[in-house]
Amino acid sequence: MSSSTTTNEALFERAQRTIPGGVNSPVRAFGSVGGTPRFIASAKGCRVTDTEGKSYIDYIGSWGPMILGHAHPAILRAIEKSLPLGTSFGAPTEGEVLLAERLVERVPHAEMARLTTSGTEATMTALRVARGITGRDAFIKFEGNYHGHADSFLVAAGSGAATHGHPSSPGVPAALADLTRLAPINDLPAVEKIFQNEGETIACVIVEPIAGNIGCVPPVPGFLEGLRRLCTEHGALLIFDEVMTGFRVHPRCAQTLYGVTPDLTTLGKIVGGGMPVGAVVGPREMMEQLSPTGPIYQAGTLSGNPLSVAAGLALLDELAERESVIYPTLEASSARLVDGISAAFTDHDIAHTIPRVGSMFSIYFREEAVLNFEHAKESDAERFKIFFHGLLDRGVNLAPSPYEAAFVSESHDKAAIDETIAAVREVAGLL
Ligand SMILES: *Cc1c(COP(=O)(O)O)cnc(C)c1O
């Protein structure tokens, strides 16, 4: 198992023999940029180190959870403290109660929480609750929004799917996909039309309040408010999928940032502090429809796993205790980074737009604003490839796809940001 002498190339070669594509989640493959994925041996703060000992400033952040940086001492301590007590009991624990209480405290509309093992399970559960409560089967999702890999959501599902050219997947029954109604992001009239035509069949609208799986596409003013109004008018539930945005863009989640209250919220990523977790939160009368209090079934052997809960609690407590420092710091360093990148591109006459909300952003090689998936796809993917590899060669690790958000953490200090901007300046000269 010694990896110190193993190259990325050799490991990838070996991985492909036993793991489809050599990766356990398709976005980790370099399918859309070419080349060899870096096999990560360790990470600390804003840097990851690969199996060859090369270190990179990391903007993947495990796809979101690492808002305070990798291997944060408070999180490691919490896991270390929990570990000798046992790793899973299949019975309730105090930690689960504490984490549920934190979520109820900090997600404004939440009165109860159900913990799962992944974001995928959280969105699956939320959809089932919406269908169960309304007695309706159809629902609306947005093109390019990603809600995990459950069948109903694998219809025009963003990054992984978009990158690999399978906007929907074989194995998803057409009969099920038929129940998924699609609308473009930020297009309220399209949603209105669906409701007018078949409002009485729509159980819910599920939306990423900030689209984060086709790059970063913030909501246009009035969009989320309009969804809230339409759902209320037509007796459908509004589900905010905040698996990515929850505690990332605001200490009380994106719903607080935009002042729109959903019926159910799904969470994951940050909520587990880098360990496997997901959660559905909402008002008591909806949440109590879940078994065992209600008839809507949902379960999980490792749901509320003690190590995940310990890590999640440590991160959420750190975020709450230092909220007045962490979020302004993230805002300032992310703004400085994006301004620096933008200036470098402008100096080299490179068409670009870099939408950002707090510490999530994405770089599109396109002049005009990106408001939906169609626009995102018009970004220059060839240019992104060169940009991506140019940065990787210079020790900066972006997500290996033009359709992914980048994440800044508290550990991205001035030196790391400056180093990144300098690398971007060099690469901009090659584009
Ligand atoms: C990551 C993500 C999911 C899926 O979460 P997993 O833990 O990977 O199953 C769902 N929704 C959104 C918005 C996500 O970003």
Topology of this structure?
Elements: H1 8-18, E1 40-44, E2 47-50, E3 55-58, H2 73-82, H3 94-106, E4 112-116, H4 119-134, E5 138-142, H5 159-163, H6 174-177, E6 180-183, H7 188-198, E7 202-207, H8 223-234, E8 237-241, H9 254-258, E9 264-268, E10 278-282, H10 284-287, H11 306-321, H12 323-347, E11 356-357, E12 360-361, H13 373-377, H14 381-393, E13 396-397, E14 406-407, H15 414-428
Parallel strand pairs: 3-13, 5-6, 5-7, 7-8, 8-9
Antiparallel strand pairs: 1-2, 2-3, 4-10, 9-10, 11-12, 12-14
The protein binds pyridoxal-5'-phosphate.
CATH top level assignment of the largest domain: Alpha Beta
Structural class: alpha/beta
The average pLDDT value, as a whole number, equals 95
The fourth-level CATH homologous superfamily of the largest domain is Type I PLP-dependent aspartate aminotransferase-like (Major domain)
Bound ligand species:
pyridoxal-5'-phosphate
Number of strands: 14
Largest sheet: 7 strands, mixed
- CA-based shape: globular
Question: Treating each run of at least 4 consecutive H or I residues as one helix, how many helices?
Answer: 15
**Residues in helices, as a percent range:** 25-40%
The total domain count is: 2
Measured between the Cα atoms of the first and last residue, the distance is: 40 Å
Second CATH tier, the architecture of the largest domain? 3-Layer(aba) Sandwich
Poorly predicted regions are 162-167
The fold-level CATH name of the largest domain is Aspartate Aminotransferase, domain 2
Q: Can you list the strand order of the major beta sheet? A: 4-10-9-8-7-5-6
Order of helices and strands: HEEEHHEHEHHEHEHEHEEHHHEEHHEEH
Beta strand %:
5-15%
Computed over alpha carbons, the radius of gyration is 21 Å
